[in-house]
Design goal:
The protein has 476 residues and is of the alpha+beta class. The chain has 2 domains: 8-239 and 249-359, no CATH class; 365-465, no CATH class. Helices cover 33% and strands 21% of the residues. Helix 2 (19-39) packs antiparallel against helix 3 (52-89).
């Protein structure tokens, strides 16, 4: 059976869960497990047979779980209503970008496990973000910070990982990451784990580590991207409202102004420890260079269930270089803390690496259209039944330029597939012109250019790559 990529219509047609609430629910169950550990319970028992105090605690916890189930229902409705409005304001379904092939080639696949283990050997509470020997950028073949990394469209949907690419990249370290997280001090308190002996007992009773190692943990990673300049008129922004614990979940802002002119969204910036609004932030040293605001909804599909992970707000300078980023967490409550995760940072950086290719001058890849699969055409037809104006989805991808040829073992010349030139693309490098004090290309162009490797010829697949010339840089 051929793989059917996730798309926006499937998200609109399916239940979607908030990972934050799902984690909160897990933490509540962990409190029940902590009580079981304290009482020495190793088999199923009736709650009513427990002593009064733990019985009352467990009943109260189940009431909180019931409330979270209601909030998940409210979130599903509010999120999809806002997403539908974004489509209406966009006057059509956003461009879909299949990016998993280029993302796969951006990653240093051969060293994923080594890099991860190098990072987790550090004792930081949050791994992968700041380490003297390793950093998040070491997961990529090009470990420089992205430049010219803005999205190609105001609104687009990007599939960053397919199950296949996930399995051979971050899927390799996911079980270890889960187990490391379980050992962290913050989560340990939630599970009633205070010592190594507590953890061993918890592991023996509740974690089937063999099953975790052998489980099919494949997932698809999907991003909904909104991008605006700070002085651009915005009709509507698909962002969650800050939630203070009420039973209603709200999503979406009617801006009807520029980000500079509006006073609806408080982005929560600080200057010297004092909270400032966007206008005040733009007068700071970092704010003065900010030109673009990008909101990325991170969504994954795992075991048939679609999860909203988080929204990351990133700010970029005029050259598309990230200046600052923060997690926009509309669903937060004092009972469960939410922090910026390394997976968020990894996803946004990976997305920026894709857009850098998209925006660059290079002699390897070009933007191309993809045909709609039968399953997508069927969803589009269903979607249009309730609408007077018919809409469709445009799929785009980065593909090998037809001018690049390989010769196979039979002597047949053809355009290679992207995965066939993976080794070749990883030997090249990026050159950025007109930024960070560097001169402009040919004295006039501010651009990012991918420079091909000098050594060409036989690829790892046995194909012979013909020589090719660097594309002429044209005026914009």
């Amino acid at each position: 059976m051929s793989y059917k990529p996730l798309n926006l219509l499937e998200i609109l047609d399916s239940p979607i869960k908030s990972t934050t609430m799902a984690q909160a629910e897990m933490q509540l169950f962990s409190k029940i497990r902590a009580i079981e550990l304290e009482l020495g319970i190793t088999s199923e028992v009736d709650v009513l047979d427990l002593p009064k105090e733990p019985q009352e605690k467990i009943v109260d916890i189940y009431e909180q779980i019931k409330m979270l189930e209601h909030l998940q229902y409210e979130f599903n409705n509010a999120y999809k209503k806002s997403l539908n409005k974004l489509v209406e304001v966009n006057k059509g379904l956003p461009v879909h970008i299949n990016a998993w092939d280029i993302h796969d080639h951006n990653l240093d696949v051969d060293n994923i496990v080594t890099t991860y283990k190098g990072v987790i050997n550090d004792d930081d509470e949050i791994p992968l973000i700041d380490n003297g020997d390793y950093s998040l950028l070491d997961f990529f073949t090009d470990n420089s910070s992205p430049v010219f990394a803005t999205a190609p469209y105001n609104i687009c949907a990007v599939q960053l990982q397919s199950p296949e690419t996930y399995d051979k990249t971050m899927g390799q370290v996911m079980t270890d990451d889960i187990l490391k997280t379980m050992r962290s001090e913050r989560l340990g308190r939630d599970y009633g784990i205070h010592t190594e002996e507590d953890y061993k007992r918890f592991e023996d009773q509740y974690l089937d580590t063999v099953a975790m190692e052998n489980a099919d943990n494949s997932c698809e990673l999907f991003c909904i991207v909104q991008q605006y300049t700070i002085d651009e008129f915005i009709e509507f922004m698909h962002l969650g409202h800050k939630w203070s614990g009420e039973k209603d979940v709200h999503w979406g802002f009617d801006i009807k102004d520029t980000l500079l002119g509006q006073d609806i969204i408080n982005f929560g910036f600080t200057d010297g420890g004092t909270e400032v609004d966007l206008q005040e932030f733009l007068t700071t040293e970092m704010g003065k260079v900010t030109k673009f605001v990008v909101a990325v909804d991170i969504i994954n599909k795992s075991d048939g269930v679609i999860f909203y992970e988080s929204t990351i707000l990133s700010f970029y300078d005029e050259h598309g270089s990230p200046t600052t980023a923060r997690r926009w967490e509309p669903i937060a409550h004092e009972d469960y803390s939410i922090e910026l995760t390394h997976s968020d940072m990894f996803t946004v950086t990976a997305l920026e690496k894709v857009f850098q290719w998209w925006n660059s001058d290079n002699d390897l890849l070009e933007v191309g259209d993809l045909p709609l699969s039968p399953s997508v055409r069927k969803r589009v037809k269903k979607y249009n039944k309730k609408r007077s104006s018919k809409r469709s989805i445009t799929y785009k991808t980065l593909k090998v330029r037809p001018t690049l040829k390989v010769i196979d073992s039979d002597g047949v010349e053809r355009t290679p597939r992207l995965r066939e030139i993976a080794q070749h693309t990883r030997r090249g490098h990026w050159a950025h012109y007109g930024i960070n004090g560097k001169g402009k290309l040919f004295g006039k162009y501010t651009k990012s250019v991918y420079r091909k490797p000098k050594t060409i010829g036989k690829l790892s697949s046995g194909l012979v790559l013909k020589d090719y010339e660097l594309l002429e840089v044209k005026d914009d």
